[in-house]
Amino acid sequence: MPKGKGPQGKRITLKVAKNSLRVLFNGRRRLELSKMGIAVFPKCLLELADVEEIDLSRNMLRKIPNIIEKFQNLMWLDLHSNQIDELPAEIGTLRSLTYLNLCNNKLTIKGLPEELTHLRNLRILNLGLNCLETIPTTLGSLKELVELGLFDNSLTIIPKSVKKLPKLERLNVKRNPLPEFAKEEEPIDTIKRIESLYLVEKKDLCNSCLQTCQGERDELHKLEDMTPEPSDKPSFPSLTTPNSTAMDNQEEWRMK
């Protein structure tokens, strides 16, 4: 296979990385490397290992190397929408991390190292849209967790230690085969009631939002097709007709 092609994806140089560095309003420095076709964690990022935030979402990453431990100032790490199936044990050394997004990857229980529980300052953890059939009970040691996303997995049970996390405010477990969600669903209200209406131009929507809007529009059209149209023929149900002939041709009799 020729060099520079295939699974290696786009090559990120130190110059490209430096140009992707942003200073946020809170003074933190963020490496914005989202949607760049990266398949291998760029080693050149070690030259910028003192950054506080890294966005590597929407790439083609399969592995996170153990050199991630060099980023000891890291507080915010976004890895969503990659192909990651395993995290290194060294991720547990990032003790300053408060936000970790691993949504939409290929993680299983085997890909979650026990050292993940060392992230004692973690406040937001997103594991949604992965391949999890269970989660470690040891996640209950993340006492600072405020939000935990576990949606769209294959979970049949949520450990009590996780449910009882002291600061947990949001636990998203939607679309999992959990017994408590196996009850008969309430009938769907086919009448769409609009509470708020927002107008936006098509060009300002991302692909995902555009598809959602188009889908809702199609559903609305289906409802319109199901609604019976009023008859054009006038009806006179309380009309007293003088004879049977008028009763047979009520409309003609009434018009005269």
Automatic annotation (TrEMBL):
Keywords: Leucine-rich repeat, Repeat. InterPro entries: Leu-rich_rpt, Leu-rich_rpt_typical-subtyp, LRR_dom_sf, LRR_domain-containing. This is LRC18 protein. Residues 237-248 have a biased composition (Polar residues). It comes from the Eukaryota. The gene is Lrrc18. Residues 220-256 are annotated as: Disordered. It comes from Peucedramus taeniatus. It holds the Pfam family LRR_8. One of its GO terms (cellular component) is cytoplasm. PROSITE patterns: LRR. PANTHER family: LEUCINE-RICH REPEAT-CONTAINING PROTEIN 18-LIKE (PTHR48051:SF42), PTHR48051.
